[in-house]
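Co-fold these.
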Amino acid sequence: MNDRLYKILLFAAALIMPIVCGGVVYALVTDAYEAFEHFGFFKFLTSSKWSYTEGSEQYGALPFVTGTLMTTLLALIFCIPFSLPVALFVGEYFKGSRVAALLSTVTDLLAGIPSIIYGLWGFYTLRPIIMALHISPQGSGILTASLVLAIMIIPYAASLSAEFIKMVPNDLKEGAYSLGATRAEVIRKVVFPVAGSGIFSSYVLAIGRALGETMTVTMLIGNTNNIPDSITSTGNSMASIIANQFGEASDLRFSSLIAIGLVLFLITAFINMIGKMMIKRARIA
Amino acid sequence: MKKIFASVMTWAVAVALVACGGNANQEGREAQELSGAGATFPLPFYNVVFEQFGQVNGDQVAYGGIGSGGGVRNLRDKIVDFAGSDAFLSEKEMTEMAPVLHIPTCMGAVVVAYNLDGVERLNLTGELVADIFAGKVTMWNDARLVALNPQVKLPAEAIMPVYRSDGSGTTFVFTDYLTKVSPMWAATYGTGKSVNFPSGQAAKGNPGVAGVIKQTKNTIGYVGSEYAFAQKIPYAAIENTQGEFILPTSATISAAASGEIPADTRCSITNSAASGAYPISTFTWMIIYKEQNYSDRKKEQAMATLDLLKYILSDEAQAITSEVHYAPLPAKAKELSMENLKSVTFDGVAILQ
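Predicted complex below.
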Protein backbone atom coordinates (compact mmCIF):
# COMPACT_ATOMS: atom_id res chain seq x y z
CA MET A 1 0.00 0.00 0.00
CA ASN A 2 2.70 2.40 1.10
CA ASP A 3 4.77 1.37 -1.82
CA ARG A 4 1.98 2.13 -4.25
CA LEU A 5 1.35 5.56 -2.74
CA TYR A 6 5.03 6.31 -3.05
CA LYS A 7 4.98 5.27 -6.65
CA ILE A 8 1.98 7.47 -7.45
CA LEU A 9 3.55 10.47 -5.73
CA LEU A 10 6.78 9.96 -7.59
CA PHE A 11 4.95 9.63 -10.86
CA ALA A 12 2.99 12.84 -10.24
CA ALA A 13 6.16 14.74 -9.33
CA ALA A 14 7.93 13.47 -12.41
CA LEU A 15 5.00 14.50 -14.56
CA ILE A 16 5.22 18.14 -13.47
CA MET A 17 8.32 18.96 -15.52
CA PRO A 18 6.98 17.80 -18.90
CA ILE A 19 3.72 19.62 -18.14
CA VAL A 20 5.55 22.86 -17.33
CA CYS A 21 7.68 22.54 -20.45
CA GLY A 22 4.65 21.80 -22.59
CA GLY A 23 2.86 24.77 -21.04
CA VAL A 24 5.72 27.09 -21.90
CA VAL A 25 5.77 25.91 -25.50
CA TYR A 26 1.98 26.20 -25.72
CA ALA A 27 2.00 29.77 -24.35
CA LEU A 28 4.82 30.79 -26.69
CA VAL A 29 3.11 29.30 -29.73
CA THR A 30 -0.31 30.84 -29.03
CA ASP A 31 1.15 34.31 -28.40
CA ALA A 32 3.55 34.10 -31.35
CA TYR A 33 0.80 32.97 -33.69
CA GLU A 34 -0.32 36.49 -34.58
CA ALA A 35 3.15 37.49 -35.77
CA PHE A 36 3.65 34.31 -37.80
CA GLU A 37 0.22 34.68 -39.32
CA HIS A 38 0.79 38.33 -40.19
CA PHE A 39 4.29 38.03 -41.65
CA GLY A 40 4.51 34.32 -42.47
CA PHE A 41 6.89 32.02 -40.60
CA PHE A 42 9.81 32.10 -43.06
CA LYS A 43 9.29 35.74 -43.95
CA PHE A 44 9.48 36.57 -40.24
CA LEU A 45 12.73 34.64 -39.87
CA THR A 46 14.36 36.12 -42.96
CA SER A 47 13.17 39.72 -42.82
CA SER A 48 15.74 42.19 -41.54
CA LYS A 49 13.31 45.05 -41.02
CA TRP A 50 12.28 46.09 -37.51
CA SER A 51 10.18 49.20 -37.93
CA TYR A 52 7.72 50.76 -35.51
CA THR A 53 6.03 53.13 -37.95
CA GLU A 54 2.36 52.96 -37.05
CA GLY A 55 0.12 51.47 -39.70
CA SER A 56 3.02 49.79 -41.51
CA GLU A 57 4.75 47.96 -38.69
CA GLN A 58 7.41 45.55 -39.92
CA TYR A 59 9.00 43.02 -37.63
CA GLY A 60 11.61 40.51 -38.72
CA ALA A 61 13.88 38.32 -36.62
CA LEU A 62 16.94 38.14 -38.86
CA PRO A 63 19.02 40.94 -37.26
CA PHE A 64 18.56 39.35 -33.84
CA VAL A 65 19.19 35.79 -34.97
CA THR A 66 22.37 37.09 -36.62
CA GLY A 67 23.34 39.02 -33.50
CA THR A 68 22.80 36.00 -31.26
CA LEU A 69 24.71 33.64 -33.53
CA MET A 70 27.59 36.10 -33.99
CA THR A 71 28.05 36.79 -30.27
CA THR A 72 27.75 33.10 -29.42
CA LEU A 73 30.19 31.94 -32.07
CA LEU A 74 32.75 34.61 -31.19
CA ALA A 75 32.37 33.88 -27.48
CA LEU A 76 33.04 30.21 -28.22
CA ILE A 77 36.17 31.03 -30.22
CA PHE A 78 37.48 33.34 -27.47
CA CYS A 79 36.69 30.85 -24.74
CA ILE A 80 38.52 27.81 -26.16
CA PRO A 81 42.13 29.01 -25.59
CA PHE A 82 41.29 29.62 -21.93
CA SER A 83 38.99 26.76 -21.06
CA LEU A 84 40.88 23.94 -22.78
CA PRO A 85 44.19 24.55 -20.91
CA VAL A 86 42.29 24.78 -17.64
CA ALA A 87 40.58 21.47 -18.41
CA LEU A 88 43.90 19.78 -19.25
CA PHE A 89 45.56 21.26 -16.17
CA VAL A 90 42.83 20.05 -13.85
CA GLY A 91 41.99 16.79 -15.61
CA GLU A 92 45.38 15.54 -16.77
CA TYR A 93 48.59 17.32 -15.80
CA PHE A 94 47.85 18.07 -12.15
CA LYS A 95 44.99 15.64 -11.70
CA GLY A 96 43.96 15.35 -8.04
CA SER A 97 46.57 17.84 -6.78
CA ARG A 98 45.81 20.77 -4.52
CA VAL A 99 46.63 23.34 -7.21
CA ALA A 100 44.15 21.70 -9.54
CA ALA A 101 41.48 21.76 -6.86
CA LEU A 102 42.15 25.45 -6.28
CA LEU A 103 42.08 26.24 -10.00
CA SER A 104 38.85 24.38 -10.62
CA THR A 105 37.24 26.07 -7.60
CA VAL A 106 38.23 29.51 -8.89
CA THR A 107 36.96 28.69 -12.38
CA ASP A 108 33.69 27.43 -10.96
CA LEU A 109 33.40 30.65 -8.97
CA LEU A 110 33.17 32.52 -12.27
CA ALA A 111 29.93 30.66 -12.94
CA GLY A 112 28.44 32.01 -9.72
CA ILE A 113 28.93 35.70 -10.52
CA PRO A 114 25.60 37.32 -11.46
CA SER A 115 25.44 38.45 -15.09
CA ILE A 116 24.77 42.08 -14.12
CA ILE A 117 28.23 42.18 -12.51
CA TYR A 118 29.80 40.98 -15.75
CA GLY A 119 27.74 43.62 -17.53
CA LEU A 120 28.96 46.41 -15.26
CA TRP A 121 32.55 45.26 -15.58
CA GLY A 122 32.20 45.18 -19.36
CA PHE A 123 30.56 48.59 -19.42
CA TYR A 124 32.93 50.44 -17.10
CA THR A 125 36.23 48.61 -17.70
CA LEU A 126 36.26 46.76 -21.00
CA ARG A 127 34.35 49.35 -23.07
CA PRO A 128 36.80 52.21 -22.35
CA ILE A 129 39.69 49.87 -23.24
CA ILE A 130 38.06 49.01 -26.58
CA MET A 131 37.61 52.74 -27.22
CA ALA A 132 41.18 53.56 -26.15
CA LEU A 133 42.53 50.93 -28.54
CA HIS A 134 40.47 52.52 -31.34
CA ILE A 135 38.83 49.19 -32.09
CA SER A 136 35.46 50.89 -32.31
CA PRO A 137 34.46 54.50 -31.62
CA GLN A 138 31.44 53.71 -29.46
CA GLY A 139 33.01 50.89 -27.46
CA SER A 140 29.93 48.73 -27.30
CA GLY A 141 29.11 46.19 -29.96
CA ILE A 142 29.24 42.52 -30.94
CA LEU A 143 32.94 42.18 -30.04
CA THR A 144 32.61 43.67 -26.55
CA ALA A 145 29.60 41.53 -25.75
CA SER A 146 31.36 38.40 -27.07
CA LEU A 147 34.49 38.97 -24.98
CA VAL A 148 32.48 39.16 -21.76
CA LEU A 149 30.29 36.24 -22.82
CA ALA A 150 33.46 34.19 -23.39
CA ILE A 151 34.55 34.73 -19.80
CA MET A 152 31.08 33.82 -18.60
CA ILE A 153 31.02 30.45 -20.36
CA ILE A 154 34.60 29.37 -19.53
CA PRO A 155 33.58 27.60 -16.29
CA TYR A 156 30.85 25.61 -18.05
CA ALA A 157 33.19 24.42 -20.79
CA ALA A 158 36.22 23.91 -18.54
CA SER A 159 34.79 21.90 -15.66
CA LEU A 160 32.79 19.51 -17.82
CA SER A 161 35.74 18.96 -20.20
CA ALA A 162 37.98 18.25 -17.22
CA GLU A 163 35.57 15.54 -16.06
CA PHE A 164 35.73 13.81 -19.44
CA ILE A 165 39.52 14.11 -19.58
CA LYS A 166 39.73 12.52 -16.12
CA MET A 167 37.58 9.64 -17.34
CA VAL A 168 40.13 8.53 -19.96
CA PRO A 169 41.25 5.05 -18.74
CA ASN A 170 44.76 4.88 -17.30
CA ASP A 171 45.46 1.60 -19.12
CA LEU A 172 45.25 3.39 -22.44
CA LYS A 173 47.55 6.20 -21.39
CA GLU A 174 50.06 3.83 -19.79
CA GLY A 175 50.04 1.73 -22.94
CA ALA A 176 50.97 4.79 -24.96
CA TYR A 177 53.71 5.78 -22.50
CA SER A 178 55.19 2.27 -22.59
CA LEU A 179 55.45 2.62 -26.36
CA GLY A 180 57.61 5.71 -25.77
CA ALA A 181 55.03 8.44 -26.35
CA THR A 182 55.69 11.83 -24.79
CA ARG A 183 53.04 13.52 -22.66
CA ALA A 184 52.03 15.87 -25.46
CA GLU A 185 51.65 12.90 -27.77
CA VAL A 186 49.52 11.06 -25.24
CA ILE A 187 47.24 14.05 -24.98
CA ARG A 188 46.97 14.47 -28.72
CA LYS A 189 46.76 10.80 -29.69
CA VAL A 190 44.99 9.23 -26.70
CA VAL A 191 43.22 11.77 -24.48
CA PHE A 192 41.64 13.89 -27.20
CA PRO A 193 40.38 11.00 -29.35
CA VAL A 194 38.89 9.22 -26.31
CA ALA A 195 37.44 12.27 -24.54
CA GLY A 196 36.76 14.14 -27.78
CA SER A 197 33.01 13.82 -28.03
CA GLY A 198 32.71 14.55 -24.29
CA ILE A 199 34.76 17.73 -24.67
CA PHE A 200 32.72 18.65 -27.72
CA SER A 201 29.49 18.21 -25.79
CA SER A 202 30.74 20.43 -22.95
CA TYR A 203 31.28 23.22 -25.47
CA VAL A 204 27.84 22.64 -26.91
CA LEU A 205 26.36 23.12 -23.43
CA ALA A 206 28.45 26.29 -22.99
CA ILE A 207 26.97 27.56 -26.26
CA GLY A 208 23.53 26.91 -24.84
CA ARG A 209 24.39 29.19 -21.98
CA ALA A 210 25.73 31.95 -24.25
CA LEU A 211 22.68 31.88 -26.51
CA GLY A 212 20.25 32.96 -23.84
CA GLU A 213 22.40 35.40 -21.88
CA THR A 214 20.42 38.61 -21.62
CA MET A 215 21.59 41.21 -19.12
CA THR A 216 25.26 41.34 -20.06
CA VAL A 217 24.52 41.41 -23.76
CA THR A 218 21.90 44.13 -23.42
CA MET A 219 24.40 46.33 -21.61
CA LEU A 220 27.20 45.84 -24.12
CA ILE A 221 25.86 45.14 -27.58
CA GLY A 222 24.71 48.67 -28.46
CA ASN A 223 21.07 47.71 -29.08
CA THR A 224 20.66 48.74 -32.70
CA ASN A 225 18.07 46.80 -34.67
CA ASN A 226 20.04 46.07 -37.82
CA ILE A 227 22.26 43.27 -39.05
CA PRO A 228 25.79 44.02 -37.81
CA ASP A 229 28.12 44.60 -40.75
CA SER A 230 31.31 43.77 -38.82
CA ILE A 231 32.23 42.33 -35.44
CA THR A 232 32.97 45.79 -34.06
CA SER A 233 29.61 47.29 -35.01
CA THR A 234 26.58 47.42 -32.76
CA GLY A 235 23.66 45.03 -32.96
CA ASN A 236 21.04 43.29 -30.88
CA SER A 237 20.58 39.68 -29.81
CA MET A 238 17.33 37.77 -29.53
CA ALA A 239 17.39 37.88 -25.76
CA SER A 240 18.34 41.56 -25.60
CA ILE A 241 15.64 42.77 -28.00
CA ILE A 242 13.05 41.01 -25.84
CA ALA A 243 14.48 42.52 -22.64
CA ASN A 244 14.59 45.96 -24.23
CA GLN A 245 11.16 46.18 -25.72
CA PHE A 246 8.92 43.96 -23.64
CA GLY A 247 7.78 46.76 -21.31
CA GLU A 248 5.92 48.93 -23.77
CA ALA A 249 5.09 46.36 -26.42
CA SER A 250 1.54 45.48 -27.37
CA ASP A 251 -0.36 43.75 -30.17
CA LEU A 252 1.79 42.89 -33.16
CA ARG A 253 5.10 43.91 -31.58
CA PHE A 254 4.31 41.88 -28.45
CA SER A 255 3.53 38.87 -30.60
CA SER A 256 6.72 39.37 -32.62
CA LEU A 257 8.81 39.46 -29.45
CA ILE A 258 7.18 36.24 -28.25
CA ALA A 259 7.88 34.74 -31.67
CA ILE A 260 11.56 35.63 -31.26
CA GLY A 261 11.39 34.00 -27.83
CA LEU A 262 10.00 30.86 -29.43
CA VAL A 263 12.77 30.77 -32.04
CA LEU A 264 15.37 31.24 -29.30
CA PHE A 265 13.73 28.43 -27.32
CA LEU A 266 13.90 26.12 -30.33
CA ILE A 267 17.55 26.95 -31.10
CA THR A 268 18.57 26.45 -27.47
CA ALA A 269 16.63 23.19 -27.20
CA PHE A 270 18.18 21.91 -30.43
CA ILE A 271 21.73 22.74 -29.32
CA ASN A 272 21.20 21.21 -25.89
CA MET A 273 19.83 18.10 -27.51
CA ILE A 274 22.98 17.73 -29.62
CA GLY A 275 25.08 18.22 -26.47
CA LYS A 276 23.15 15.53 -24.59
CA MET A 277 23.46 13.11 -27.48
CA MET A 278 27.21 13.63 -27.67
CA ILE A 279 27.56 13.04 -23.91
CA LYS A 280 25.66 9.79 -24.23
CA ARG A 281 27.91 8.70 -27.05
CA ALA A 282 31.00 9.66 -25.04
CA ARG A 283 29.81 7.55 -22.10
CA ILE A 284 29.17 4.50 -24.28
CA ALA A 285 32.59 4.79 -25.86
CA MET B 1 21.58 30.88 11.61
CA LYS B 2 18.04 29.59 11.66
CA LYS B 3 17.37 31.55 14.82
CA ILE B 4 18.58 34.82 13.29
CA PHE B 5 16.45 34.20 10.23
CA ALA B 6 13.39 33.53 12.37
CA SER B 7 13.84 36.68 14.40
CA VAL B 8 14.37 38.80 11.31
CA MET B 9 11.18 37.38 9.81
CA THR B 10 9.20 38.06 12.99
CA TRP B 11 10.49 41.60 13.01
CA ALA B 12 9.60 42.12 9.33
CA VAL B 13 6.09 40.78 9.86
CA ALA B 14 5.66 43.03 12.90
CA VAL B 15 6.73 46.09 10.91
CA ALA B 16 4.39 45.14 8.10
CA LEU B 17 1.48 44.77 10.52
CA VAL B 18 2.14 48.14 12.11
CA ALA B 19 2.41 49.75 8.68
CA CYS B 20 -0.95 48.34 7.63
CA GLY B 21 -2.74 49.25 10.84
CA GLY B 22 -6.17 50.58 10.00
CA ASN B 23 -6.02 53.97 11.72
CA ALA B 24 -8.62 56.49 10.66
CA ASN B 25 -7.67 59.90 9.21
CA GLN B 26 -8.86 63.35 10.23
CA GLU B 27 -12.15 63.15 8.34
CA GLY B 28 -13.02 59.95 10.15
CA ARG B 29 -12.72 57.93 6.96
CA GLU B 30 -11.02 54.58 7.38
CA ALA B 31 -7.47 54.56 6.01
CA GLN B 32 -7.26 52.98 2.56
CA GLU B 33 -4.66 51.21 0.51
CA LEU B 34 -4.47 52.63 -2.98
CA SER B 35 -2.61 51.09 -5.85
CA GLY B 36 -1.44 52.58 -9.10
CA ALA B 37 0.95 51.69 -11.88
CA GLY B 38 2.54 53.31 -14.86
CA ALA B 39 5.22 55.76 -15.91
CA THR B 40 8.67 55.54 -14.36
CA PHE B 41 9.44 59.17 -15.23
CA PRO B 42 7.61 60.69 -12.18
CA LEU B 43 8.56 57.82 -9.85
CA PRO B 44 11.03 59.74 -7.62
CA PHE B 45 8.45 62.52 -7.17
CA TYR B 46 5.64 60.06 -6.46
CA ASN B 47 7.73 58.21 -3.90
CA VAL B 48 8.15 61.37 -1.83
CA VAL B 49 4.57 62.57 -2.32
CA PHE B 50 3.01 59.20 -1.46
CA GLU B 51 5.02 59.01 1.74
CA GLN B 52 4.02 62.54 2.76
CA PHE B 53 0.41 61.80 1.85
CA GLY B 54 0.56 58.70 4.04
CA GLN B 55 1.77 60.77 6.97
CA VAL B 56 -0.88 63.46 6.47
CA ASN B 57 -3.87 61.26 5.60
CA GLY B 58 -2.98 57.79 6.82
CA ASP B 59 -3.67 56.22 3.43
CA GLN B 60 -1.02 53.98 1.90
CA VAL B 61 -0.25 54.23 -1.80
CA ALA B 62 1.58 51.53 -3.75
CA TYR B 63 2.86 52.47 -7.19
CA GLY B 64 4.50 50.15 -9.70
CA GLY B 65 6.79 51.80 -12.24
CA ILE B 66 5.97 49.46 -15.13
CA GLY B 67 5.88 52.04 -17.92
CA SER B 68 3.05 54.25 -19.18
CA GLY B 69 1.67 51.61 -21.53
CA GLY B 70 1.49 49.00 -18.77
CA GLY B 71 -0.20 51.44 -16.41
CA VAL B 72 -2.92 52.26 -18.91
CA ARG B 73 -3.38 48.54 -19.58
CA ASN B 74 -3.85 47.94 -15.86
CA LEU B 75 -6.43 50.72 -15.67
CA ARG B 76 -8.25 49.26 -18.64
CA ASP B 77 -8.28 45.90 -16.84
CA LYS B 78 -9.64 47.79 -13.81
CA ILE B 79 -7.09 46.41 -11.40
CA VAL B 80 -5.62 49.73 -10.21
CA ASP B 81 -7.02 52.93 -8.69
CA PHE B 82 -5.05 55.14 -11.05
CA ALA B 83 -2.58 54.91 -13.91
CA GLY B 84 0.48 57.12 -14.33
CA SER B 85 1.26 58.15 -17.89
CA ASP B 86 3.68 60.47 -19.69
CA ALA B 87 1.49 60.52 -22.78
CA PHE B 88 -2.18 61.44 -22.74
CA LEU B 89 -4.57 58.90 -24.21
CA SER B 90 -5.38 59.26 -27.90
CA GLU B 91 -9.00 59.72 -29.03
CA LYS B 92 -8.96 56.09 -30.15
CA GLU B 93 -7.77 54.85 -26.75
CA MET B 94 -10.37 57.05 -25.03
CA THR B 95 -13.21 55.44 -26.97
CA GLU B 96 -12.01 51.96 -25.97
CA MET B 97 -12.45 52.63 -22.24
CA ALA B 98 -15.08 54.02 -19.88
CA PRO B 99 -14.76 57.83 -19.50
CA VAL B 100 -11.51 58.83 -17.79
CA LEU B 101 -9.97 62.00 -16.40
CA HIS B 102 -6.40 63.17 -16.93
CA ILE B 103 -4.96 64.98 -13.92
CA PRO B 104 -1.48 66.49 -14.44
CA THR B 105 0.71 65.92 -11.39
CA CYS B 106 3.96 67.66 -12.22
CA MET B 107 6.11 68.75 -15.10
CA GLY B 108 9.38 67.56 -16.51
CA ALA B 109 11.44 67.88 -19.62
CA VAL B 110 13.70 65.96 -21.93
CA VAL B 111 17.21 67.37 -22.00
CA VAL B 112 19.73 66.97 -24.79
CA ALA B 113 22.84 65.80 -22.96
CA TYR B 114 26.32 65.67 -24.50
CA ASN B 115 29.93 64.81 -23.76
CA LEU B 116 32.39 67.26 -25.29
CA ASP B 117 35.75 68.23 -23.85
CA GLY B 118 35.84 71.83 -22.68
CA VAL B 119 32.37 72.75 -23.90
CA GLU B 120 30.46 74.31 -21.02
CA ARG B 121 27.54 75.65 -22.99
CA LEU B 122 26.06 74.32 -26.19
CA ASN B 123 23.29 76.06 -28.15
CA LEU B 124 21.07 73.99 -30.42
CA THR B 125 17.97 74.57 -32.50
CA GLY B 126 15.23 71.99 -32.79
CA GLU B 127 15.90 71.47 -36.46
CA LEU B 128 19.58 70.86 -35.81
CA VAL B 129 18.75 68.30 -33.11
CA ALA B 130 16.48 66.53 -35.62
CA ASP B 131 19.23 66.54 -38.27
CA ILE B 132 21.78 65.16 -35.78
CA PHE B 133 19.51 62.28 -34.73
CA ALA B 134 18.59 61.62 -38.36
CA GLY B 135 22.30 61.26 -39.16
CA LYS B 136 22.28 64.27 -41.52
CA VAL B 137 24.67 66.37 -39.39
CA THR B 138 27.53 64.03 -38.56
CA MET B 139 30.46 66.20 -37.41
CA TRP B 140 30.74 68.36 -34.31
CA ASN B 141 32.44 71.12 -36.33
CA ASP B 142 29.56 71.28 -38.82
CA ALA B 143 29.13 74.86 -40.07
CA ARG B 144 25.62 75.16 -38.60
CA LEU B 145 26.80 74.04 -35.15
CA VAL B 146 29.77 76.40 -35.25
CA ALA B 147 27.54 79.31 -36.27
CA LEU B 148 25.30 78.74 -33.24
CA ASN B 149 28.24 78.35 -30.85
CA PRO B 150 30.87 80.98 -31.68
CA GLN B 151 32.05 81.09 -28.05
CA VAL B 152 33.32 77.48 -27.89
CA LYS B 153 35.71 75.39 -29.94
CA LEU B 154 33.92 72.34 -31.37
CA PRO B 155 36.15 69.35 -32.21
CA ALA B 156 36.47 67.83 -35.68
CA GLU B 157 35.04 64.55 -34.43
CA ALA B 158 32.07 62.44 -35.50
CA ILE B 159 28.85 62.93 -33.54
CA MET B 160 27.63 59.75 -31.87
CA PRO B 161 23.91 59.86 -31.12
CA VAL B 162 22.61 57.74 -28.21
CA TYR B 163 18.95 56.84 -27.96
CA ARG B 164 16.61 54.64 -25.93
CA SER B 165 16.48 50.95 -26.81
CA ASP B 166 13.28 50.41 -24.81
CA GLY B 167 9.89 51.94 -25.48
CA SER B 168 9.63 55.10 -23.43
CA GLY B 169 7.58 58.21 -22.70
CA THR B 170 10.87 60.13 -22.86
CA THR B 171 11.31 59.11 -26.50
CA PHE B 172 7.67 60.04 -27.12
CA VAL B 173 8.11 63.59 -25.81
CA PHE B 174 11.43 64.05 -27.61
CA THR B 175 10.14 62.85 -30.98
CA ASP B 176 6.88 64.79 -30.49
CA TYR B 177 9.03 67.92 -30.31
CA LEU B 178 11.17 66.96 -33.32
CA THR B 179 8.03 66.21 -35.33
CA LYS B 180 6.75 69.71 -34.60
CA VAL B 181 9.95 71.55 -35.50
CA SER B 182 11.29 69.49 -38.40
CA PRO B 183 9.21 68.59 -41.46
CA MET B 184 11.97 66.15 -42.42
CA TRP B 185 11.61 64.35 -39.07
CA ALA B 186 7.81 64.35 -39.29
CA ALA B 187 7.89 62.79 -42.74
CA THR B 188 10.58 60.16 -42.09
CA TYR B 189 10.44 59.13 -38.43
CA GLY B 190 7.42 60.66 -36.69
CA THR B 191 6.38 60.46 -33.04
CA GLY B 192 6.33 57.35 -30.87
CA LYS B 193 7.54 55.57 -27.76
CA SER B 194 9.91 53.67 -30.06
CA VAL B 195 11.18 55.24 -33.26
CA ASN B 196 13.46 53.88 -36.01
CA PHE B 197 16.52 55.99 -35.22
CA PRO B 198 18.88 55.54 -38.17
CA SER B 199 22.28 56.08 -36.54
CA GLY B 200 24.20 55.81 -33.30
CA GLN B 201 23.75 53.32 -30.49
CA ALA B 202 20.98 52.61 -28.03
CA ALA B 203 20.83 51.89 -24.30
CA LYS B 204 18.13 50.79 -21.88
CA GLY B 205 16.46 53.37 -19.68
CA ASN B 206 17.63 56.83 -18.62
CA PRO B 207 20.51 55.34 -16.59
CA GLY B 208 21.68 53.41 -19.68
CA VAL B 209 21.67 56.43 -22.00
CA ALA B 210 23.18 58.75 -19.38
CA GLY B 211 25.83 56.13 -18.59
CA VAL B 212 26.88 55.81 -22.23
CA ILE B 213 27.04 59.61 -22.64
CA LYS B 214 29.09 60.08 -19.46
CA GLN B 215 31.49 57.35 -20.54
CA THR B 216 31.90 58.18 -24.21
CA LYS B 217 33.35 61.33 -25.74
CA ASN B 218 31.56 63.11 -28.59
CA THR B 219 28.19 61.55 -27.79
CA ILE B 220 24.83 63.30 -27.70
CA GLY B 221 21.58 61.84 -26.38
CA TYR B 222 18.27 62.64 -24.77
CA VAL B 223 17.58 62.00 -21.11
CA GLY B 224 14.68 62.73 -18.75
CA SER B 225 15.31 65.99 -16.91
CA GLU B 226 14.79 64.46 -13.47
CA TYR B 227 17.65 62.08 -14.17
CA ALA B 228 19.94 64.58 -15.90
CA PHE B 229 19.52 67.16 -13.09
CA ALA B 230 20.24 64.61 -10.37
CA GLN B 231 23.29 63.27 -12.24
CA LYS B 232 24.63 66.69 -13.24
CA ILE B 233 25.33 65.79 -16.88
CA PRO B 234 26.02 68.73 -19.20
CA TYR B 235 23.01 69.50 -21.40
CA ALA B 236 22.30 71.92 -24.23
CA ALA B 237 20.24 75.10 -24.39
CA ILE B 238 17.52 74.74 -27.01
CA GLU B 239 16.05 77.57 -29.05
CA ASN B 240 12.33 78.11 -28.42
CA THR B 241 9.73 79.68 -30.69
CA GLN B 242 10.64 83.15 -29.37
CA GLY B 243 14.21 82.73 -30.61
CA GLU B 244 15.62 82.46 -27.07
CA PHE B 245 18.15 79.76 -26.19
CA ILE B 246 16.79 78.22 -23.00
CA LEU B 247 18.40 75.80 -20.55
CA PRO B 248 15.98 73.43 -18.81
CA THR B 249 15.29 74.49 -15.20
CA SER B 250 12.21 74.20 -12.98
CA ALA B 251 11.22 77.76 -13.95
CA THR B 252 11.68 77.39 -17.73
CA ILE B 253 9.88 74.05 -17.74
CA SER B 254 6.88 75.48 -15.85
CA ALA B 255 6.88 78.43 -18.25
CA ALA B 256 6.17 76.02 -21.12
CA ALA B 257 2.67 75.43 -19.71
CA SER B 258 1.85 79.08 -19.13
CA GLY B 259 -0.08 79.35 -22.41
CA GLU B 260 -3.57 78.09 -23.21
CA ILE B 261 -4.44 74.63 -21.89
CA PRO B 262 -7.57 72.70 -22.95
CA ALA B 263 -10.13 71.98 -20.21
CA ASP B 264 -9.24 68.28 -20.02
CA THR B 265 -5.48 69.13 -19.84
CA ARG B 266 -4.77 66.63 -22.63
CA CYS B 267 -2.23 68.56 -24.62
CA SER B 268 1.35 68.45 -25.73
CA ILE B 269 3.30 71.48 -24.53
CA THR B 270 6.45 70.83 -26.53
CA ASN B 271 7.55 73.74 -28.72
CA SER B 272 5.51 76.07 -26.49
CA ALA B 273 4.87 79.59 -27.79
CA ALA B 274 5.42 81.13 -24.33
CA SER B 275 8.37 83.40 -23.70
CA GLY B 276 11.11 81.92 -21.51
CA ALA B 277 9.80 78.37 -22.08
CA TYR B 278 12.08 75.36 -22.48
CA PRO B 279 10.70 73.77 -25.64
CA ILE B 280 10.92 70.04 -24.80
CA SER B 281 8.74 70.12 -21.68
CA THR B 282 5.86 67.86 -20.74
CA PHE B 283 3.15 67.18 -18.20
CA THR B 284 2.90 63.80 -16.59
CA TRP B 285 -0.57 62.64 -15.73
CA MET B 286 -2.53 60.40 -13.41
CA ILE B 287 -5.49 58.87 -15.16
CA ILE B 288 -8.61 57.79 -13.23
CA TYR B 289 -12.11 56.68 -14.15
CA LYS B 290 -14.84 59.31 -13.92
CA GLU B 291 -17.17 56.70 -12.44
CA GLN B 292 -15.29 55.33 -9.47
CA ASN B 293 -17.55 52.36 -8.71
CA TYR B 294 -15.80 49.51 -10.51
CA SER B 295 -14.24 46.18 -9.52
CA ASP B 296 -16.00 46.15 -6.11
CA ARG B 297 -14.30 49.32 -4.94
CA LYS B 298 -15.69 50.94 -1.82
CA LYS B 299 -16.72 54.57 -1.66
CA GLU B 300 -13.94 55.19 0.88
CA GLN B 301 -11.42 54.01 -1.69
CA ALA B 302 -12.80 56.45 -4.27
CA MET B 303 -12.64 59.23 -1.68
CA ALA B 304 -9.05 58.35 -0.84
CA THR B 305 -8.14 58.44 -4.55
CA LEU B 306 -9.54 61.96 -4.82
CA ASP B 307 -7.82 62.98 -1.58
CA LEU B 308 -4.54 61.83 -3.09
CA LEU B 309 -5.05 63.85 -6.27
CA LYS B 310 -6.14 66.92 -4.29
CA TYR B 311 -3.02 66.55 -2.19
CA ILE B 312 -0.76 66.32 -5.25
CA LEU B 313 -2.33 69.51 -6.64
CA SER B 314 -1.83 71.32 -3.30
CA ASP B 315 0.94 73.89 -2.85
CA GLU B 316 2.55 71.67 -0.25
CA ALA B 317 3.05 68.80 -2.70
CA GLN B 318 3.88 71.03 -5.65
CA ALA B 319 6.67 72.60 -3.59
CA ILE B 320 8.36 69.19 -3.51
CA THR B 321 8.61 69.02 -7.32
CA SER B 322 11.67 71.22 -7.73
CA GLU B 323 13.42 69.60 -4.75
CA VAL B 324 13.33 66.25 -6.57
CA HIS B 325 14.26 67.79 -9.96
CA TYR B 326 10.82 68.30 -11.49
CA ALA B 327 8.86 71.49 -12.11
CA PRO B 328 5.61 72.62 -10.44
CA LEU B 329 2.33 72.89 -12.33
CA PRO B 330 1.25 76.40 -13.36
CA ALA B 331 -1.83 77.84 -11.58
CA LYS B 332 -4.06 77.36 -14.62
CA ALA B 333 -3.43 73.60 -14.79
CA LYS B 334 -4.20 73.23 -11.07
CA GLU B 335 -7.47 75.19 -11.37
CA LEU B 336 -8.65 73.15 -14.34
CA SER B 337 -7.79 69.91 -12.56
CA MET B 338 -9.62 70.84 -9.35
CA GLU B 339 -12.64 71.64 -11.51
CA ASN B 340 -12.28 68.30 -13.35
CA LEU B 341 -12.11 66.38 -10.05
CA LYS B 342 -15.60 67.65 -9.18
CA SER B 343 -17.01 65.63 -12.07
CA VAL B 344 -15.85 62.35 -10.50
CA THR B 345 -18.79 60.25 -9.35
CA PHE B 346 -19.52 57.16 -7.30
CA ASP B 347 -22.70 55.39 -8.46
CA GLY B 348 -23.49 58.52 -10.44
CA VAL B 349 -23.28 60.86 -7.43
CA ALA B 350 -20.53 63.47 -7.36
CA ILE B 351 -18.03 62.75 -4.58
CA LEU B 352 -16.67 66.28 -4.07
CA GLN B 353 -19.21 69.00 -3.42
